[in-house]
Amino acid sequence: MNGRDLVRSWWSVGVAGAARGPRTVRAAWRRRGADATGPGPRVRARVPGAVRKVVPGPGGGVIRFARSELRVLVAVNGAVFWGWDGAGPEPSYALAGACPEPDPRAELEPDTDGGWRVVAERVTVAVSRHGALEVLTPGGVTLRRDLPPRWWEAEDGGPARWMQRSEVPADARFFGPGGPVEGPRPRDGAHRMGNGVTGTGSAAPVTMPVQLVVADAGTHLLFVDNPWDGTLTLREGAEGAGSGHDRVGTSELRMEGGPVRGWVMAGTPARVLLTWASLAGAPALPPAWAFGHHHVREGAGGEDEVRRVVAGHLERGLPLDAVHLGDGHLDGGRAFTVDQDRFPKLPVLADELRREGVRLVSVVPAAVRAEDRRGEGVFPDLPDARVRYAGQAARGFAGVWHTVDGSVPFGRVDALCLGRAAHEGLRDEVPADERPLVLSPSGWPGSQRYGGVWSGEGAVGWPGLRASLARVVGLGLCGVPFSGPDVVGGGRDGGCELYVRRLQLAAYLPLLRTGAVGPADGGPWEHGAAVLGHARVALGERRRLLPYFVTLAHLARRTGAPMVRPVWWPAPEERELRDCEDAFLLGDALLVAPVLEPGAVRREVRLPRGRWYDTATGRAYEGPAKVLVDAPLERIPVFARAGAVLPVRAEDGGTELEVWAPAPGRSGGGLVVPESGDDGDGPEAERYSVTRSGPRVVVRRETEEGAQEPSRPVRVRGLDGTGAQM
User: Fold this and answer.
1) Is the confidence at residue 195, as pLDDT, over 60?
2) How many of the other CB atoms lie within 10 Å of CB of 223?
3) pLDDT at 476 over 80
4) Both ends of the chain: CA-CA distance in Å?
5) At residue 184, does pLDDT exceed 80?
6) Are the beta carbons of 611 and 622 closer than 8 angstroms?
7) How much is the pLDDT for 507?
8) For residue 305, which phi and psi values (nearest 5 degrees)?
9) Which segments constitute the Glycoside hydrolase family 31 TIM barrel domain (predicted)?
10) How confident is the model at residue 34, as a pLDDT?
11) Phi, psi angle pair for 667, to nearest 5°
């Protein structure tokens, strides 16, 4: 089965699978003793059986069982591949290139009880004589155990559905898969492994088949390379409080077909995401303006209406960096066709706005309307690598954002191919010193190579605010660092307070998009003077942090580390931090604690180990601790790590270094990556060190020639605080 067959098979099963229900499944099980669904040919169950033969090879080898075979490969980057029934790592849309080379030092060798194992530098893989696959640390501690898969094959030769159960340590916590979950930790229960398409045509939430598991023994990431529809059922474990009766955590994956294959990588969270990025590809580097404020304009007005919206923001002191045009600017809703009556001089408008520092971004529906079939959508041959966009830059657009039409089937691999077509087409057209912006509502591992994810408005009300944060954190742990929700208002689901809290949260997320807050399709001023004042503060702080966001984007491209991180990221061994879902780290310097409840003017914040400064008051706190801080409507609590170096925008528009004083006798530092116009790896990172001796803080730039005075202005904060508080 090649890559194109995988895409076609996803389309065919996606619609049929939706009609099956759990009651039908249970009845079929009782009636025929097999996990079949609905009427049809009889099915037969199959398990691998016992080991019959082993064929060692570089990095592992092939283990042949009575009714199946397992291929195991440990790559040079430490990632472990496993594939059943002859499945190999290629072809795969998830891989950035060819499969990494096998580790020449690792090979299959006999293990106890008739099993086999592969011992590598970072991981040990053990396979039992009946096909259970266990991943262990170099010290022999189990990270996960995958039981032998089970297939249900139709006698007429149709696609085989399969199931695999897995076990993790009792203390382990699941994170991901980046979809419509209540928190970055998915709750116990069933989760659909697919991008559902809503009947209204709104954004389909991204669900990556990527699972990050954090335990005392270590962190590991699992990627199941199968684009078919399926269900993942999770149950976290429980420790026996010293009784020895621990209950392991379990996951059960049921897929409607496709290959049984995947990858596992283990280590620290930073090591795991670095390995994942080396496998699935480095995230695309968005242009610097993409980290500013985007406004989505869905109305049917023309060029003058766009000018009015832009002028409304600038006249009121609201920073604006991009305007996203919705379906209203298209001719009859057809992709790539501009309504010439309402936008007769679109390139002229784009140049005019660019001089104001504002870019235009065009919507592109996933399906292209056929001229001879009015109202119907057709797909280009998306898996064909030659398919790419053309002419968007000539119309004045600096980027595109995709939508999903709920009337047509649209899979995760389709979204990846659509992103590739857009990114490569725009990259060939934009000037050499610029980079394109591509945003999609759906995706598949590897989509990060071409752009980011916009997750739409999400669920309504205050629960939707919490869910939007969870989705961004979850996507970051799946390898997609550039994402964010849409901030809308207009009294739809909570009024002015919720709108302000949404905007304050989004100001610290990688992608900040606001939508219409009223029928005039304007801006925050339509909510009144008070909301306008709060919006001006939030957007102003976002503008001040633009150099820091650019630095984090460069580091994400080079290391795979997410820009938005769970608070346990630097210390996954601290169990209490694993359960913290109402705050996050922005890089390694800032801890953001959004307000997620109505009417709250104070909130409790759990601080990790070390000294942290309240950026609004300068007050210092010593962690680990829980602190109660003010959270008035005009701001949310934000803390800076002692010793941190943040690049921020100075009043003159340049970049200055905001340095937070280390605790007495301690040191700190940070990295700064200045903006670069090329699409490569960008400029060299500037490394700064911070030391403190009494009231004096010394900042140095570390170079190959030695420590030097910083070439940028430095502003030290935290020295005038009230002292560390427990």
Assistant:
1) no
2) 26
3) yes
4) 60
5) no
6) yes
7) 98
8) -65, -40
9) 283-375, 419-552
10) 34
11) -135, 175
Phi, psi of 270 (to 5 degrees): -65, -40
Each residue of 510-542: pLDDT tens digit?
A: 999 998 655 556 788 888 899 999 999 999 999
Alpha-carbon 653 to chain mean position: 30
How many other CB atoms are there within 10 angstroms of residue 245's CB atom?
10
8 A C-beta contact, residue 229 and residue 16:
no
Strand positions, DSSP E, 17-115: 43-46, 51-57, 60-65, 69-74, 80-84, 108-110
In this prediction, residue 206 has a pLDDT band, given cuts at 50, 70 and 90, of: confident
* Secondary structure class of 348 (helix, strand, coil): helix
Q: Are 489 and 517 in contact (CB under 8 A)?
A: yes
310 and 522 Cβ atoms separated by less than 8 Å? no
Angstrom distance (rounded) from CA 363 to CA 618? 43
Residue 36 has a pLDDT of 37
Instruction: Label residue 179 by pLDDT band (50, 70, 90).
Output: low
Neighbours of 716 (CB within 10 A): 17
Distance of alpha carbon 360 from its chain centroid, rounded?
24
- Enumerate residues 6+ apart whose C-beta is below 8 A from 684: none
**What single DSSP character describes residue 448?**
G
Place of tokens 């008035």: 632
Mean pLDDT for the stretch of residues 611-621: 97
Over 90: is that where the pLDDT of 15 sits?
Answer: no
Hey, what are 413's tokens?
Answer: 């691999």
How much is the pLDDT for 342?
92
* Long-range CB pairs of 502-506, under 8 A, 24+ apart, other chains included: 502/465, 502/468, 503/534, 503/535, 503/538, 503/539, 504/534, 504/538, 504/594, 504/595, 504/635, 504/636, 505/465, 505/468, 505/469, 505/592, 505/594, 505/636
C-alpha to C-alpha distance for 554 and 686, rounded to whole angstroms: 12
pLDDT confidence tier of residue 191, bands split at 50, 70 and 90: confident
Judged by DSSP in three states, 418 sits in helix
Q: 147: which residues sit within 8 A by CB, 6+ positions away?
A: 132, 164, 165, 166, 167
Within 13 Å, how many C-alpha atoms sit on residue 120's CB side?
A: 29
What is the rounded CA–CA span in Å between residue 372 and residue 143? 56
Q: Cα separation of 369 and 60, whole Å?
A: 49
Mean pLDDT (the chain, rounded):
86
Angstrom distance (rounded) from CA 417 to CA 10:
14
Tell me: pLDDT of 676 over 90.
no
304 by Cβ neighbours in 10 Å (0-12 / 13-18 / 19+) ranks as: exposed
Share of the chain above pLDDT 90, in %: 67
Q: Round to whole Å and give the CA distance between 166 and 209.
A: 15
**CB within 8 A of 236, min separation 6: which ones?**
172, 173, 174, 188, 249
Phi, psi for 144 (deg, rounded to 5): -160, 155
Burial 32-64 (b: 16+ CB within 10 A, else e): eeebbbeeeeebeebebeebeeeeeeebbbbbe
612: pLDDT strictly greater than 90: yes
Whether 253 contacts 224, CB under 8 Å: yes
Summarised one tens digit per residue, pLDDT across range 591-600 is: 999 999 999 9
Instruction: Kindly state the tokens that stand for 201.
Output: 């045509």
* Residues facing residue 168 across a β-bridge: 249
Selection from 390, 450, 467, 468 nearest residue 414 by Cα: 450
- Beta-ladder partners of 484: 454
Task: Name the nearest CA neighbour of 695 among 656, 726, 721, 673.
Answer: 721
